[in-house]
Write a structure and sequence with these properties.
By secondary structure, this protein is an alpha+beta fold. The protein is 40% helix and 13% strand.
């Protein structure tokens, strides 16, 4: 019987690099599982641990459902050249992500998607998340809104413009386009992406009823902002890391090859 054993590629990387690859591969698989992906487009990138001049990107043409830790190329932030790995660099990924990675210290992970509910809001004259529930309030003060769609991002200047719009925020609603979530870890960026889509979904469902949206009182909004997640009651891992670890356990049971 011909037994094929997948190569142990982790030996080619430091432990920190391999863990980064595993986590980023998990994010791609989870985004596909959660319905956040759109064909072979959209992009989830992460700077290479210990470096400020390279980030991880999948080769153009890869489907998110097949991404593994070994899939990623290392792409130069300043020039867009493949420094490690093989494949084509999808142009809009480089032009959006590289400038954001370079300009914003909170942007170690940059996750851009056309996920349906949040992207639907970007098609509205008023795309803003409303203070109508706990999840929504948890996002208040973290979202930047770009009201100008300029067409496909095929030059780095567009990424520089978007970085300026984001500023000190961690989520960007891109007019007539999609959303981008930032994080200092894969877990943080994915957690934001997940809850932005949940908030957008619930808001759209509420809007579909045709009834007026019930705004929360200002005092309740402020209390919720302070207390959401209950982090002061726990020690150790942050809620985003706990969430992402739980999601990875699903992959460990159902499609463990993501970590190869």
């Amino acid at each position: 019987m011909d037994v094929r054993i997948a190569p142990d590629n982790r030996r080619n990387y430091s432990p920190e690099e391999w863990q980064a690859r595993v986590d980023l591969a998990a994010a791609h698989r989870l985004a596909y599982m959660h319905g956040f992906s759109e064909g072979i487009f959209n992009h989830l990138t992460l700077t290479v641990p210990g470096r400020i001049d390279r980030y991880y990107q999948i080769p153009f043409g890869s489907h998110w459902s097949e991404v593994t830790a070994s899939t990623f190329m290392e792409v130069g932030i300043d020039d867009g050249w493949v420094k490690h790995g093989t494949g084509d660099v999808e142009r809009s990924c480089y032009c959006i992500h590289a400038p954001i990675h370079k300009a914003l210290p909170q942007a170690r992970a940059v996750f851009h998607t056309h996920m349906p509910f949040a992207s639907a809001l970007t098609r509205l004259e008023d795309p803003r998340i409303k203070e109508i529930g706990q999840t929504e309030v948890g996002l208040m003060g973290k979202i930047a809104y770009d009201d100008q769609y300029t067409g496909p991002a095929l030059e780095p200047e567009e990424g520089e413009r978007l970085a300026g719009v984001i500023g000190d925020k961690t989520v960007l609603f891109m007019a007539n386009h999609g959303v981008t979530a930032l994080g200092d870890t894969v877990a943080a960026a994915y957690d934001r992406l997940y809850y932005v889509e949940r908030a957008a979904q619930v808001q759209i469902y509420a809007m579909w009823t045709g009834q007026p949206l019930k705004q929360l009182p200002a005092a309740v909004v402020e209390k919720t902002k302070r207390d959401i997640g209950g982090s002061r009651y726990y020690t150790g891992l942050k809620p985003a890391e706990r969430h992402f670890n739980a999601l990875k356990r699903i992959l460990d049971r159902t499609e463990p090859d993501y970590a190869s």
